[in-house]
Structures are given as C-alpha cells and as structure tokens.
Amino acid sequence: MTAVNDKPSTFAALRTMAWAQGRMLLHSYTRGPLILISVLLLLAFVAPVAGIYSVWALYSFRRWEPQPTIELLHVFLFSIWMVWVGLPLYGFSMSETMGTYNLRSFPVRSLVLFVGRCLSALVDVPVLFLAPPYLAVLFGYCQHSVWNLLVGLITLTVFTLNFVSGSVLLSSLMRLFPRSKRVLVPLLIVLLLAAAPIAWLLPGRAFTPDIELLSREFLVTLGISRFLSFAPSGFAANTLIGFREGHAGLLLASFLGLAASTLLLLVAGSWANLRADLTSGGTGRTQPIEQMAYPSSPPATFLQKFARRLEKRFSPSMWAVMGKEVALFRRDPELLLYLIIIPALVIPLFLIWLLFGEAVPPAQRFSLSLVFIWIPLVGSAGLLFNLFGYDREGLASLFLSSASRRRILAGANVVVAIFVLGEVMFVSLFVWFFFKRWEFWLQTLLVLLVLLPILAAVGNFCSILVPYYVMRDRRGLHQAGMARVWLWGVSNLFAMALAFMLAMPAVLALTSLPILLRDRAHLWWITPVGLAYSLGLYLLSLRYGSRLLLSREPEILKRCSAPTGERG
Amino acid sequence: MMAVNVPGDYGVYTEGLTKDFGLLRAVDNVSLRVERGEFFGFLGPNGAGKTTTILMLTGLLRPTSGRIQVAGFDLARQPLEVKARVGLMQEEPTLYHYLTGEEHLLFAARMHNLPHDVARTRADELLDVLDLKGARRILVSDYSAGMRRKISLAAALIHDPAVLFLDEPFSGIDVVSSRVIKDILHILTERQVTIFFSSHVLELVEKLCHRVAIINKGAILRTGSPDDLRKDAGLPAAASLEDVFLQVVGRREVGSGLSWLR
After folding, report:
1. Domains identified in chain A, total number
2. How many angstroms separate the CA atoms of A406 and A408, rounded?
3. CA gap A234, A258 in Å, rounded
C-alpha cells in the first residue's frame, strides 16, 4: 500500500529552493576558471557605472537642499526599478536557473514557487550591483538615526522584492506570448508609455538651455516626483521621506502602497508564471496545435515565382540556409524582439537627445547624432558575430549536411546583413529626417554596403572560433551560460574593433574624400573601389573560414547546442 | 571523389576509437567492422557509450583518438564525402524548432543539394508514408515527441543515404508508424544500405539485425550474429537476446533494497 506524504510547508519549500539555487550557483562557479573571468569582466564593465552613479547620488543626498533631494530620491529609485524590471526586454531574465516548470510536479502552491523563484533571483552575482545604490540611499538619506536606517533597510528590502517580482512577471508574460506579434506590439506600446514623461516634457520645455542636466534646479523645475509618487519606486521614496520628515500618514500610506503593489505583482506574476509553465508544457508551445497550424500555401505569387527562378540559378543549399535564416527571423521570439527592441530604444533616446541637446551648438549636435546610427549598427551587427547561436539544436542538422561550408556561411551572412542594413537604415531615416539631410541617408547606405562585407568577414571567424548558445526565453544571466556570454561579449568587442579598423580605409574614403575633393560626384568611383576592397576581404574570409568551419564543427556544436534541460 | 585507403568494403570501419570527457573515458578503443548493406545492432546499457559512438561516426563529436571510415571515406580527411552519404536519426532529435515539418524536410533535402522538384516529391512522399501530412505546416516545436522522431527519420532518409544511423528509432512511435518504419528499413536493407541500429528493444534487434555488438562502459564486449552470441555465452538456441545481454553485461537484483515498497 502506498503512503501519502505531507506537503512541505511554505518555509520548507522556500528553504529547499534556496538550497537548490545555492548549489547550482556553487556548481556553476566551480566548473572552471571561465566563470571567474566572466565575473571579473562583469565587475570591470558594470561596477564603475553603478559606483559613479551611486557616489554622485550619495554626495547629492548629503549636500543638496530638501526639495531637490526629494526629487533626486524619486528619480534615483525609479531608475533602479526601471532598469531591473526591464531586464527581460534587454535579454537578461532573472532567476532562470530556478525555473518553476520542473518544480510543478511537487506539491507546492504556485504562489510559493513564484516567491521562491523571486527570492532565488537574489542569490546571484548581478544583485551585488544593488549594493552601491542602496548604500548611497541608506548613508546619504537615512543616516540620521538607527531607526531611520532600519526603516530604510526594510523599505529597500520590500522594494527589491517588488522589482524582482515585476521583472519575473515580465519575463513570464514574454514566455507566455513569445510568438504572438499581437503581444509584441502592446509590449512596444507599454515601453513607449513608460517613456511618457518625455512626451510630457516635449511641449512644456520647462527648462532653459543653460540649465545643467540633472542639476538641482532642473529637478525642482521638472517636479517629476508628482508623477512618480504612484509608482512602486515612488511609494518607497515617500516611505523614506515620511519617516525622515516625521510625517506618519505619508510613511504609513506609502509603505502600505509599496506592500500592496508588491503583493499585486507577486500574485500577477504567480498567475502568469503558472500559465506560462502549463501552456508551454516546457516545449515552448503556447497555443494548441490546431491554432498553430499555418494556413495552406496560396497560389505562388510573383515574388515566390521569382524566388524559385533564383533558386534554380543559385545553389539549393545556399538557398536553403537563407530560407532557414529568414524563418528564424520571422518566428524566433528572441530574434523578433531583437528586431523591435533596437529601434524602440534608439529612437526615443534620439528624441530625448534632440530635446536636451538644445544647448549644444548645431555642428556638434549633428556629429553627436551619428552615435544614434552607430548604436543600431553595433547592436544588430552583433548577430554577424554569432551566426550559429540561434540555430540551437537544429545546428546538428546543418552540420550533418554535405553542403559547401562556403555556401552555409554566405547564406547566413546575406540574410543577417540585410537585417542589419534594414535596422540601421530605418533608424537613420529618423536621424536624417530631423536634420533634413536626405543626401546623408544615401551616403549611410553606401557606407553600410562597404562596411557589412567586412563585418561579415571578421564575424565569420568570430562565429567559428567563439560561438555561443543563445538561450531560450531571454535567459541571458543564467549562471551556467554567463561565463560564455561574457567571454563571447569581449571577443565580439575585439572582433568588431578589428572589423572597423579593416573597414576604416574604405569608410574614410567614402565619407571624407567627397568633402576633400569638394564634389559628391566622386562617390561614383569611390564606391566601387571601396566595394571591391570589402568584397575581396569577404571572399578571402569565405575561403579560409569555410575550411575552419568544417574542422571546428564538433566544437561549435558542443558550444551552441541546447543543454538537455533546455530542449523542448 | 575517390575513396582513400579503404580497408575492405565496409559501411562503417573504426580502429581504436576512443573518447574522453575530462577524466571519464566514454568510449574505449572501439574497433568495429560493419559490412556494406549490413543491418548492425549496437546494444548497451544506459551510459555505455552508444550515442557518443554514433555522434563520432557521423562527425558530430570529435574523437580523442582513433580512425573512422564511413561508406569508404575517411571521416577526418573527407568529412563532406561522409556526410553526403550518411543519415542520422538521433535519440533526441535535433531539429529546427522554428521551421515547420515540411520546411525542415525541404531544408534537409536542399542541404544535400537535391533539386527542388526532387526534394518536394520526396518530402511529400515521406510525410505521407509517415502520417505527417496533416501536420506538415505545423512548427516542429509544436510536434509531439513521436512526430519529431518521424520528421528526424524522414530528414535522415530524404537524400537516400548509403549508411543510416538510428539511435532508438522506435521510442515514442505508435504501432502503425513502427510497422511503416520497419518496412522502410527492410527496403533499405534490400538496397544494400548499411544500417547502424542502436536500441534497448532487444526483441526488435534480434528480429532485424544481421549482427550485433554489445558495448558496456565504453568497451565492446561481444560482436557477432545473435546465434553466435548465444553460442559464445553457452546459452541454448531458445534463449533470447535479452538473456545473452544480461549475461554479458551483468544482472542487477533488487535484493533487500526499496524497503519501503515491501
């Protein structure tokens, strides 16, 4: 006769989850030196940013008058909240090691699993970056008494749980609706709504050009605390302000608001997480099969007929690789998000820059605006440096084939390069529209046509020598994969720098020679010469890269295939 | 292209094949000779090194040492020649999740340089025979485990390979499709296709395979026809392959364990 065991208590379940998270963390850090290198890299890149921001805030909290300090506290906590909640949008989900799907078979309530998942998110290296800003708040704003410090500590703890649950809620929602474009569009709208304060600033222009950004006067004039008071960060800020100013009503109401919003996020997150786990069933499926079926093919359109004609002319294998890449871009939620997130981040940033950059002389504004073309270029060109990372388990099918490796590389390069070209040209449309310099849009196109083959050439070697597996569900901070992500990040950075150095002669010729020769018509001969140079380099990369690819396929497969637990 | 240094007319030939994962030796000095057109069974308990061997034979895993020839070509020197001639159905199918079943087949066909019309015809026929026609436009990620296996088998067959590697091909496959797959395998054997077949279903192995190798802890313990293995083990002709397997690999009893179930 079988015995029925008691269900574990909430505390026992949370303790077990914390233990498992701790063990996984320990294993991930004792697997080899790579993880330590990755942590050092992480510290080297992010710690200075968090440190400088926090030291500046600490100084300002202690030195500024009460009114701007209150405004600063609101802005400071809001920025922390936004960065952490928004992590899944940038490709980093919290607490993916402690995914709840595998825990569903245990007799533990969904809410407890979700809380456990949120708490386990705090047992992770990136959480260390919360220390500097929190120390700035505690010792800059709450240093007046031990009780003040204690209230600060409790408030920040609840606040942390608030944004962690918000972040996990967002990643659960993204997991729940990963393939539906109907959901990506509302997500984009939410992102734009989050940038609503910008829209509010645009007509107001409540500052004069000579006011320093984030200065006391600017913050007071902005008065943004009025709007942020109803956000979770505002509740946290007002709790601290209420205690310091002896305003019991404000303290109590704000803390209750913070606690209620945290509870709401936990319950909503638990619901979304449960739905995501049970709907996908660990396979990534989000809809019943009959709904997922793609409609029957309509009669071939002109484009399809044209494509078939092209296919007959070119190699079927190169065509197959291109088709596969296009399908991935259309259907892989990570790549789809990649398509959307770059313009969604860069265009609002550009508009903010236009708004705040009024004090900068027009000539400098123009050259600084080139940064907004540079960002999408560097952001999207990263895909050229990891050609096999999104293939995941399908990669074995690719490498099992007898197709020429030159064609495999070329097919993938063509599709990714077209994507990069589209992204950059789309964003540059905005930049040149605001400056009314359409001729530069054409010049951007020419520069890209010369630059992309060289980026692809160097990217091919990077993809072959330092490939890395892109996890599903935006699992960027997964400890086991973190070392690879950072190692890949640094190699990518160096490879991209090398590519830009190689491209420099052609790009300089395209951008500077017409100015030096005082005639844009010279582009007619500069462009073909630049193209010949870059295509020459690209063909060389195909020649040597294809051999290297063939010899390194087992290593690439090992690095890029999904770990067993990731397979659907 | 001409094959080089072909030691005999083998479908699969390995010499001293070894694979180490750190301190663990997963495959230990394995030397195999599989004749062309032979249906060869590859048996072993979990973790014996079967899948590791198959991955090495198909060029998906680099051996630590040893020599591999498949379909008469040296894998290290002529990998593309080998890949043009092999098909692989893995225990955990490695498919593109964001392609539909039909697209995946067309992809596999074109990657083997089949003309579009041939690829289309073969894909249609495979989908039809394997009862996947209704699911042809569904993403692979939404397939059941059995459907994924069938697509994986179809992709392994679409280019008419000379050597077919099958790792647990019948696991999760329904009875009707199992019969279809067995029929396909019979046709392939008649066409002199070498089949390298790994399975835990010993009745099936006994029924289908000409010869069998038993591997345990990375090393080959026995090779021969089921009858030869029975004789070597000193078992009567009526003994099953399972009896032979258990005698070679070793039996484990529950004994006094699992006390709470008693």
Report:
1. 2
2. 5
3. 8
User: What residues make up the domain containing A182?
Assistant: 10-288
Cα distances from B23 to residues A512, A564, B19, B20, B48, in angstroms, run 58, 21, 10, 7, 16
pLDDT score at A565:
40
Residue A409 lies in a domain: yes
Phi then psi dihedrals of residue B139, to 5 deg? -65, 145
- B90/A contact by beta carbon, under 8 A: yes
What is the bridge-based pairing of β-strands B65-70 and B10-21? antiparallel
Q: What residues of B are in contact with residue A312 (Cβ under 8 Å)?
A: 116
A469-516 per-position pLDDT tens digit = 776 554 443 444 455 566 666 777 788 889 989 998 888 888 777 777
In the Cβ-directed half-sphere of A74, how many Cα atoms lie within 13 Å? 24
Q: Which CATH architecture has domain B10-219?
A: 3-Layer(aba) Sandwich (3.40)
The count of CB pairs under 8 A between chains A and B is: 131
Say whether residue A548 is in contact with chain B using an 8 A CB cutoff. Answer: no
Phi, psi of A34 (to 5 degrees): -60, -40
User: What is the pTM for the complete model shown?
Assistant: 0.69
Tell me the pLDDT tens digit for each residue of B15-74: 999 999 888 899 999 999 999 999 999 999 998 999 999 999 998 888 999 999 999 999
Do A284 and A311 fall within a single domain? Answer: no
Q: What is the DSSP letter of A532?
A: H
Structural tokens at position A106: 């245990």
- Judge whether A46 is closer than 8 Å to chain B, CB to CB: no
- What are B241's two structure tokens? 């392959």
Element (H, E) at B150: helix B145-157
Domain shared by A72 and A32, yes or no? yes
Q: Classify the C-alpha dihedral A540-A542-A547-A549 as positive or negative.
A: positive
C-alpha distance from A458 to closest chain B C-alpha (Å):
24
pLDDT one-digit tens code per residue, A99-130: 666 666 667 777 888 888 888 777 777 778 88
Name the minimum distance, in Å, from the CA of B55 to any CA of chain A. Answer: 9
